[in-house]
Design goal:
By secondary structure, the protein is mainly α. It is built from 18 helices and no strands. It has a domain of 100 residues: Alpha Horseshoe (Serine Threonine Protein Phosphatase 5, Tetratricopeptide repeat), CATH 1.25.40.
Length: 309
C-alpha cells in the first residue's frame, strides 16, 4: 500500500501519512518561531503532538518555548519527554538544563547540561550555560573551565567571551577580564552585557569614573538592564554621589516593584541622609513583599528609633 501510493505521488512523501504530517507541522512551527511568532509556533507543535505524542523535535521545541515563556513546569515536563525518547539530543538536554535552572533546580540543571556536553562536546551554548550556572553556585573555577570550552567551541562569538570575563573577574584577575571584554566589544560594540561587565571590572579596580561611563553605556543600549543600573548606583555611591545613586535605585524600584534588595538599598540611603520617614515607608513596603526579611526588619527598627545603622 505505501509503496504503491509513493509511486502514485512520483516518489514524494505521502502528505496523508501521520508521521509526515507531524514533521510538516514541526517545520512550520520552527519557521514561525524564527519569524518571532511564538504563539503560532506553539500551536503548530501542539498540533504535531496530537498526531504523534512522542515526536521528539516537537517536544523539545515546545518545551523550550513554554519554559522561555514562564511555563516552567509544563516546559520541563515536555523536555523530560524529549530526552526520554531514545536518549534525547544534545539540544534537548541543554534546553532541559536551562529550564531546570530557571525553576531553581541548579544542580538538576548542571547535570542536564553535562549530559548535553557528553553527547556533543562542541555544543558551545551548553558549555556557556553550564559555566554561567556554575558561577551562580559559587564554583568559579569550574565555571571558568566551562566558559573556556565555550570560547574554544565558538571562537569569535561575543557571549562566551563575556561569560569568561565574568568568571575571570570573580576570581580577581581583573586585567585579564578587561582584555576579554575588549575582545568582545571589538566584535560587537553595542553589546550591553559586555559594557556592563566592563563597568563591574572597573568598579572592582576602583576606576570609578570609567566604571560609571561603561555602565551608562550599557544602560543606553538596554535601559531596563536592572543589574547594570544597580552597579551604577553602587558606583555613584562610591564616588560620593548619594543623590545620584538614590535616583538610580528609585528607577530600579519603578522598573520592578518586587525588587526587595534595591528597595532596602534605597532605605539605607534614606537612613544615611536622615530621612527617617522615607526610610520607614520603604522598610514597610519591603516587608509587605518579604515579611521574613531580617534586613527590612532591622532597617524599620532604625527608622523608628533613629539609631545609626
Amino acid at each position: 500500500m505505501n509503496d504503491a501510493r509513493a509511486g502514485a505521488n512520483n516518489g514524494q512523501p505521502d502528505r496523508d501519512d501521520p508521521v509526515t504530517r507531524a514533521r510538516e507541522l514541526v517545520t512550520r512551527g520552527a519557521l514561525l518561531h524564527l519569524d518571532g511568532d511564538a504563539e503560532g509556533a506553539i500551536a503548530a507543535y501542539e498540533e504535531a503532538l496530537e498526531i504523534d505524542p512522542e515526536q521528539p523535535t516537537a517536544l523539545n521545541n515546545l518545551g523550550f518555548l513554554l519554559a522561555s515563556g514562564g511555563q516552567l513546569e509544563t516546559g520541563i515536563e515536555m523536555l523530560g519527554r524529549a530526552v526520554a525518547r531514545g536518549g534525547g539530543s544534545s539540544m534537548a538536554w541543554m534546553n532541559l538544563g536551562g529550564a531546570r535552572a530557571a525553576a531553581g533546580d541548579l544542580e538538576g540543571g548542571i547535570a542536564a547540561l553535562r549530559r548535553s556536553i557528553e553527547m556533543d562536546p562542541g555544543n558551545a551554548m551548553a558549555h556557556d550555560s553550564l559555566g554561567r550556572i556554575l558561577l551562580a553556585t559559587g564554583r568559579a573555577d569550574e565555571a571558568e573551565s566551562a566558559l573556556r570550552s565555550a570560547v574554544a567551541a565558538a571562537p569569535g562569538t561575543v557571549e562566551p567571551l563575556v561569560g569568561l570575563a565574568t568568571a575571570v573577574g570573580v576570581r580577581g584577575r581583573h586585567a585579564e577580564a578587561a582584555d576579554l571584554l575588549a575582545q568582545a566589544l571589538a566584535l560587537d560594540p553595542d553589546c550591553a552585557a559586555a559594557w556592563e561587565q566592563l563597568g563591574v571590572v572597573r568598579l572592582a579596580r576602583r576606576d570609578l569614573g570609567s566604571a560609571a561611563d561603561a555602565l551608562r553605556r550599557a544602560l543606553s543600549l538596554e535601559p531596563e538592564r536592572a543589574s547594570a543600573r544597580h552597579s551604577l548606583a553602587i558606583t555613584l555611591l562610591a564616588r560620593g554621589e548619594p543623590d545620584a545613586a538614590t535616583r538610580e535605585l528609585e528607577r530600579l524600584v519603578a522598573l520592578d516593584p518586587s525588587d526587595v534588595e534595591s528597595r532596602l538599598d534605597l532605605v539605607a540611603l534614606h537612613l544615611d541622609a536622615g530621612r527617617q520617614g522615607d526610610a520607614l515607608a520603604g522598610a514597610e513596603e519591603a516587608l509587605e513583599i518579604a515579611p521574613d526579611s531580617e534586613r527590612a526588619k532591622r532597617f524599620r527598627e532604625y527608622a523608628v528609633t533613629g539609631e545609626a545603622r
